[in-house]
Prior knowledge:
Chain A is of the alpha+beta class. The first copy, chain A, has a domain at 3-119: Jelly Rolls (Sandwich). Chain A is built from 8 helices and 8 strands, in the order H-H-E-E-E-E-E-E-H-E-E-H-H-H-H-H. In chain A, helix 4 (111-120) packs across helix 5 (122-148) and helix 7 crosses helix 8.
Amino acid sequence: MYPEFKNFHQYFTEKALVAQKDFEKLLPYFSVEKYPKGHTLLSKGGVNKHIYFVEEGLLRFYTKDENGKEFILHFAPENWWLTDRNNLCSNEPSEFFIDAYEETSVVLLNHDFIEKATEISHEFRTFHEHILQRHIKQLYRRINLLISTPAKECYIEFLKTYPNITQRVPQWMIASYLGITPEAVSRIRKELASK
Amino acid sequence: MYPEFKNFHQYFTEKALVAQKDFEKLLPYFSVEKYPKGHTLLSKGGVNKHIYFVEEGLLRFYTKDENGKEFILHFAPENWWLTDRNNLCSNEPSEFFIDAYEETSVVLLNHDFIEKATEISHEFRTFHEHILQRHIKQLYRRINLLISTPAKECYIEFLKTYPNITQRVPQWMIASYLGITPEAVSRIRKELASK
DNA sequence: CGCGTGATTGAAACCCTTCAAGTTTAGTGG
DNA sequence: CCACTAAACTTGAAGGGTTTCAATCACGCG
């Protein structure tokens, strides 16, 4: 069923507990898009009112400093949500970048979808609140990690957050996510491997 | 008008643009509390379903590691919101602490207030979404700062985020917020003063 | 095959921490 | 009003972890 958005459907019915009949009512409110590797979905200064559900592939959300150096705020592999939430409500230009690191197919939603879905399905409404709040909690956890623990433990936590992603992204991106240099990641890995 | 929650009232009518008649309807749905300096509002392992609006004083939101060392996630002076959002929806025990660093009076809301206010006032509904999303954006900004810039600039950004707070909290709390030692803050200050 | 990108490793420099001592500040009681 | 005390802040020196820079290696791809 729904080969183009199998994960999305499964997520809605199994995780968000939205009834099949409600899901069917929402079909007109979203679309599926496929982007090639390297495709840019949002650039700094742009406005992008979409919410992405990653059906397959890998997106990343990042900033660039004045020298063009990238800092990855998070990765979004299969079954993750990604959006510049600030962009949804206001028309302020974004500070962030989003692009596809692998060939990626996404389910494209906008604010109307959320409105409709919360109206149709009480389960979705509850679930949507829940994921927003869990998102905030995870951001606090990350801040807490960054201010409280040395790089080695941050790396270990990264592995827990994104299992198997080390095989999918280059090491310098992990370094960029952790706020350290690729050389430091290499040394941490070496040390961890020797145990 | 409303001497006990003057700032709260002003915030609602001027910032959230809620009409006076709508604000009056909400009066039964909140209360005002005053806490002495040092009072604990939430401890790790506890559950606390309140949302605080700081009318006067200063709250702080923090974690502790296994040695009891504190890491401040944020401060909430006058006109700031504070809550453990994860606690609102679920009954999971909290990972965080909240306490009053100064004698503080807060406006106490719970989830029912938000429900009622979004129902009564369309302006509030829009505004509430807006502050949630701005909150997320600010958390991303802080993560970006922590992974991209050295301590000195983090300190300068801290001063912008919390003007005049340096006179209200000890230096070790600022260090704890920045993820560095009090000694390092002292040296950064010295360096900045010499310019 | 040669090129470019990414990973590894080493050495020096640097920033921040740790530890320790000294100084300032604020509060308290004589 | 001063003396005492505790807490906070400053300053110095040594040490550790990370960065920076550079050289080398590994791999995939035109």
